[in-house]
Amino acid sequence: MLAGLARWIGFLTMTAGAVGALLLTGGFFWFAFSIPVDDVTLDRNADGIVVLTGAASRIPDAIELLASERGKRLLITGVHRDTSAREIARLTPLYSKFFNCCIDLDRSALNTFGNALETKRWAREHNFNSLIVVTSNWHMPRAMAELAHQIPDAKLIAFPVMSEKVKTEPWWQNFDTARFLFAEYLKYLFALARMSLDPDTVA
After folding, report:
1. pTM higher than 0.85, yes or no?
2. What pLDDT, on a 0 to 100 scale, did the predictor assign at position 22?
Protein backbone atom coordinates (compact mmCIF):
# COMPACT_ATOMS: atom_id res chain seq x y z
CA MET A 1 0.00 0.00 0.00
CA LEU A 2 2.79 2.40 0.91
CA ALA A 3 4.60 1.52 -2.30
CA GLY A 4 1.46 2.26 -4.32
CA LEU A 5 0.99 5.57 -2.52
CA ALA A 6 4.59 6.51 -3.21
CA ARG A 7 4.14 5.72 -6.92
CA TRP A 8 0.95 7.81 -7.00
CA ILE A 9 2.70 10.75 -5.34
CA GLY A 10 5.60 10.38 -7.75
CA PHE A 11 3.19 10.37 -10.71
CA LEU A 12 1.42 13.48 -9.45
CA THR A 13 4.75 15.23 -8.90
CA MET A 14 5.95 14.40 -12.41
CA THR A 15 2.63 15.49 -13.90
CA ALA A 16 2.67 18.77 -12.01
CA GLY A 17 6.26 19.36 -13.12
CA ALA A 18 5.40 18.63 -16.75
CA VAL A 19 2.35 20.91 -16.67
CA GLY A 20 4.41 23.63 -15.01
CA ALA A 21 7.10 23.34 -17.66
CA LEU A 22 4.52 23.52 -20.45
CA LEU A 23 2.91 26.59 -18.91
CA LEU A 24 6.29 28.28 -18.47
CA THR A 25 7.29 27.49 -22.04
CA GLY A 26 3.93 28.54 -23.46
CA GLY A 27 4.06 31.75 -21.47
CA PHE A 28 7.52 32.53 -22.80
CA PHE A 29 6.38 32.05 -26.40
CA TRP A 30 3.44 34.39 -25.76
CA PHE A 31 5.79 36.93 -24.16
CA ALA A 32 8.38 36.77 -26.94
CA PHE A 33 5.85 37.07 -29.75
CA SER A 34 4.07 39.97 -28.02
CA ILE A 35 7.18 42.16 -28.08
CA PRO A 36 6.81 44.84 -30.80
CA VAL A 37 9.29 44.51 -33.65
CA ASP A 38 8.19 47.49 -35.75
CA ASP A 39 8.36 51.22 -35.09
CA VAL A 40 5.16 52.73 -33.74
CA THR A 41 3.47 55.85 -35.07
CA LEU A 42 1.37 57.52 -32.39
CA ASP A 43 -2.13 58.62 -33.34
CA ARG A 44 -2.92 60.37 -30.05
CA ASN A 45 -1.43 62.75 -27.51
CA ALA A 46 -1.19 62.45 -23.73
CA ASP A 47 -0.85 64.73 -20.74
CA GLY A 48 2.75 63.68 -20.13
CA ILE A 49 5.58 61.54 -21.42
CA VAL A 50 7.81 59.30 -19.33
CA VAL A 51 10.99 57.61 -20.51
CA LEU A 52 12.76 54.89 -18.54
CA THR A 53 16.52 55.17 -18.90
CA GLY A 54 18.58 52.28 -20.14
CA ALA A 55 19.33 52.20 -23.85
CA ALA A 56 20.77 55.42 -25.27
CA SER A 57 18.13 55.78 -27.99
CA ARG A 58 15.20 55.98 -25.55
CA ILE A 59 15.83 59.55 -24.40
CA PRO A 60 16.19 61.19 -27.84
CA ASP A 61 12.98 59.50 -28.99
CA ALA A 62 11.13 60.77 -25.92
CA ILE A 63 12.42 64.32 -26.36
CA GLU A 64 11.34 64.27 -29.99
CA LEU A 65 7.85 63.29 -28.85
CA LEU A 66 7.86 66.25 -26.46
CA ALA A 67 9.05 68.59 -29.23
CA SER A 68 6.20 67.27 -31.40
CA GLU A 69 3.77 68.32 -28.63
CA ARG A 70 2.69 64.77 -27.91
CA GLY A 71 2.74 65.65 -24.21
CA LYS A 72 3.04 68.73 -21.99
CA ARG A 73 6.05 67.59 -19.97
CA LEU A 74 8.62 64.80 -20.02
CA LEU A 75 9.95 62.79 -17.09
CA ILE A 76 13.30 61.05 -17.54
CA THR A 77 13.34 58.50 -14.73
CA GLY A 78 16.33 56.51 -13.54
CA VAL A 79 18.98 59.12 -14.40
CA HIS A 80 22.36 58.40 -12.80
CA ARG A 81 23.03 60.77 -9.91
CA ASP A 82 26.23 62.02 -11.54
CA THR A 83 24.61 62.77 -14.90
CA SER A 84 23.68 66.39 -15.45
CA ALA A 85 20.87 67.81 -17.55
CA ARG A 86 23.51 69.40 -19.78
CA GLU A 87 25.01 66.00 -20.56
CA ILE A 88 21.62 64.60 -21.50
CA ALA A 89 20.84 67.68 -23.59
CA ARG A 90 23.86 66.89 -25.76
CA LEU A 91 21.99 63.83 -27.04
CA THR A 92 19.47 66.11 -28.75
CA PRO A 93 21.13 69.52 -29.27
CA LEU A 94 18.25 70.79 -31.40
CA TYR A 95 15.87 70.37 -28.47
CA SER A 96 18.08 71.49 -25.58
CA LYS A 97 15.74 74.42 -24.87
CA PHE A 98 13.13 72.00 -23.52
CA PHE A 99 15.34 71.25 -20.52
CA ASN A 100 14.62 74.76 -19.27
CA CYS A 101 10.86 74.42 -19.32
CA CYS A 102 9.41 70.99 -19.75
CA ILE A 103 11.79 68.18 -18.80
CA ASP A 104 12.11 66.73 -15.30
CA LEU A 105 14.87 64.37 -14.16
CA ASP A 106 14.42 61.63 -11.58
CA ARG A 107 17.64 60.34 -10.04
CA SER A 108 16.17 58.17 -7.28
CA ALA A 109 14.80 55.21 -9.24
CA LEU A 110 17.18 52.25 -9.44
CA ASN A 111 14.94 49.75 -11.25
CA THR A 112 11.63 49.43 -13.05
CA PHE A 113 9.70 49.29 -9.79
CA GLY A 114 11.33 52.56 -8.72
CA ASN A 115 10.58 54.07 -12.13
CA ALA A 116 6.90 53.32 -11.61
CA LEU A 117 6.86 54.87 -8.13
CA GLU A 118 8.54 58.06 -9.31
CA THR A 119 6.28 58.26 -12.34
CA LYS A 120 3.24 58.03 -10.09
CA ARG A 121 4.56 60.82 -7.88
CA TRP A 122 5.31 63.00 -10.92
CA ALA A 123 1.96 62.32 -12.60
CA ARG A 124 0.07 63.21 -9.42
CA GLU A 125 2.12 66.37 -8.96
CA HIS A 126 1.11 67.58 -12.41
CA ASN A 127 -2.41 66.09 -12.40
CA PHE A 128 -1.65 63.98 -15.46
CA ASN A 129 -4.18 61.27 -16.32
CA SER A 130 -2.56 59.95 -19.48
CA LEU A 131 1.07 59.09 -20.21
CA ILE A 132 3.11 58.03 -23.20
CA VAL A 133 5.58 55.39 -21.97
CA VAL A 134 8.93 55.22 -23.76
CA THR A 135 11.27 52.28 -23.21
CA SER A 136 12.90 49.48 -25.19
CA ASN A 137 10.53 47.07 -26.92
CA TRP A 138 11.72 44.07 -24.84
CA HIS A 139 11.25 46.06 -21.61
CA MET A 140 7.79 47.40 -22.44
CA PRO A 141 5.65 44.53 -20.99
CA ARG A 142 7.26 44.80 -17.55
CA ALA A 143 7.30 48.60 -17.59
CA MET A 144 3.62 48.78 -18.50
CA ALA A 145 2.71 46.23 -15.83
CA GLU A 146 4.58 48.14 -13.11
CA LEU A 147 3.09 51.49 -14.16
CA ALA A 148 -0.44 50.12 -14.44
CA HIS A 149 -0.09 48.71 -10.93
CA GLN A 150 0.99 52.03 -9.46
CA ILE A 151 -1.34 54.33 -11.42
CA PRO A 152 -4.25 52.12 -12.49
CA ASP A 153 -6.48 55.08 -13.37
CA ALA A 154 -4.03 56.56 -15.86
CA LYS A 155 -4.25 55.93 -19.59
CA LEU A 156 -0.90 54.43 -20.65
CA ILE A 157 0.21 54.60 -24.27
CA ALA A 158 3.19 52.43 -25.22
CA PHE A 159 5.92 53.83 -27.45
CA PRO A 160 8.44 50.99 -27.78
CA VAL A 161 11.95 51.80 -28.96
CA MET A 162 13.50 49.14 -31.16
CA SER A 163 16.53 47.63 -29.45
CA GLU A 164 19.71 46.12 -30.82
CA LYS A 165 19.49 43.50 -28.07
CA VAL A 166 16.54 41.98 -29.88
CA LYS A 167 18.07 41.15 -33.24
CA THR A 168 16.35 41.74 -36.53
CA GLU A 169 16.29 38.01 -37.30
CA PRO A 170 13.72 35.82 -35.48
CA TRP A 171 14.67 35.40 -31.81
CA TRP A 172 14.45 31.61 -32.02
CA GLN A 173 17.29 31.63 -34.55
CA ASN A 174 19.66 33.45 -32.20
CA PHE A 175 20.60 31.80 -28.92
CA ASP A 176 21.83 35.00 -27.27
CA THR A 177 18.60 36.82 -28.12
CA ALA A 178 16.46 33.92 -26.90
CA ARG A 179 18.42 33.74 -23.64
CA PHE A 180 18.14 37.50 -23.15
CA LEU A 181 14.37 37.43 -23.73
CA PHE A 182 13.90 34.47 -21.40
CA ALA A 183 15.73 36.33 -18.62
CA GLU A 184 13.44 39.33 -19.16
CA TYR A 185 10.44 36.98 -19.16
CA LEU A 186 11.45 35.67 -15.73
CA LYS A 187 11.77 39.25 -14.46
CA TYR A 188 8.31 39.93 -15.83
CA LEU A 189 6.87 36.90 -14.04
CA PHE A 190 8.60 37.91 -10.80
CA ALA A 191 7.10 41.40 -11.08
CA LEU A 192 3.62 39.96 -11.62
CA ALA A 193 4.05 37.63 -8.64
CA ARG A 194 5.23 40.47 -6.42
CA MET A 195 2.30 42.64 -7.45
CA SER A 196 -0.18 39.83 -6.85
CA LEU A 197 1.12 39.47 -3.29
CA ASP A 198 0.89 43.23 -2.79
CA PRO A 199 -2.30 44.14 -4.67
CA ASP A 200 -2.58 47.62 -3.20
CA THR A 201 -0.53 50.35 -4.80
CA VAL A 202 1.93 52.21 -2.60
CA ALA A 203 0.57 55.57 -1.37
Report:
1. no
2. 55
